[in-house]
Amino acid sequence: MTPIQMVDLQRQYRKIKPEIDEAIQTVINSAAFVKGAQVEQFARHLESYTGAKHVIPVANGTEALQIALMALGLKPGDEVITPTFTFIATAEVVALLGLTPVVVDVEWGTMNMSVEAVRKAITPKTKAIVPVHLFGQCADIEPLLSLAREHNLYIVEDTAQAIGAKYTFSDGRTAQAGTIGEIGCTSFFPSKNLGCYGDGGALFTNDDELAQRIRIIANHGMTIRYHHDMIGVNSRLDTIQAAILDTKLPHLDEYIAARQRAAEYYDKVFAGCDKILIPERSRNSTHVFHQYTLRITGANRDAVREALTKAGVPAMVYYPIPLHMQKAYQDARYKQGDFPVAERLAACVLSLPMHTELDDEQLSYITEQVLNAVKS
Known about the structure:
The protein is α/β, with parallel strands linked by helices. It has two domains: about 10-250, Aspartate Aminotransferase, domain 2, CATH 3.40.640; about 250-375, Aspartate Aminotransferase, domain 1 (Alpha-Beta Complex). It contains 13 helices and 14 strands. The protein has helices at about 10-15, 15-30, 35-50, 60-70, 90-95, 115-120, 140-150, 210-220, 240-250, 250-270, 300-310, 340-350, 360-375, and strands at about 55-60, 80-85, 100-105, 125-130, 155-160, 165-170, 175, 185, 200-205, 220-225, 225-230, 275, 290-295, 350. The strands form four sheets. Strands 1-9-8-5-4-2-3 form a seven-stranded mixed β-sheet, sandwiched between helices. The protein has a three-stranded antiparallel β-sheet with strand order 12-13-14. A two-stranded antiparallel sheet has the order 6-7. Strand 10 and strand 11 (about 225-230) form a beta hairpin. Helix 2 (about 15-30) runs antiparallel to helix 9, helix 4 packs across helix 5 (about 90-95) and helix 11 (about 300-310) packs across helix 13. The mean pLDDT is about 95.
């Protein structure tokens, strides 16, 4: 059996090695390492894939979130609502800009932002909601849009883990994650469903004016060279990474299908085990399985993880400490116990290997070891 990886990027690369190598060599031959033609080409192809009117590539997903909030013109003291059960970048950029992070609890089943918790957290200072499409499926964004319209708020989607996921509205319309709010933000970190071989990110918007502001901010605030009309940053996707992403984009649906097949295998094996809960699927969203995350409810999660490690099965905890309990984000408004669902999830979630190259032999071994671990 091939050794099991949490994410097997080497085997994925080998399958498309000639395409990738040619794309990289083309950039090297041109020596256009920054702002080469492949960056714009990738942006246009991603627009076509997602349905977004504008895709603006940037250096990484965290800067995409920062630029999004800058483009909306938020001011210090403005409140931004985000889930407490997520990666730190979502709150990090809010704090860096002098805005006020307001964290809310999540749903036990989907682990995504609770709409009711958002409703209760809105104040006159609230200016934006940042739903995180966690682990590969959309947060319930239609009611969030209704709240945003009611209170004149912006929605910035964090779709770093859910590119390619589709949300279905009550009237039957569908839209891809990241293309529904005012701005969507994604990451192309190597382990993402669409990942490059370094850092990368992008913003999505259907608003022409916002797109122009985003482009200016990402380019030092310049409209004309050496003419700086607003405070900006230096954030750009380099040409080699764009070429790699443009090569991998036509394979994205194939990659998603492979992840979904692996998830179905896990589901069938674990469905009868009363000590674990399989990932709950949203009724409104497809799931692209950036992670396959179990909830260990009838055994000690950390003991299970240790047993898996000894058996050669990597497993990760995303995320062991909710935002409101992080030392850097301690706030007099929040204390342990205020967000019981997130705190319970932090104590019981366990993500299993999930990538495009998992085969039946590996899946059989992984599931066998998980069942052994929870029963021991």
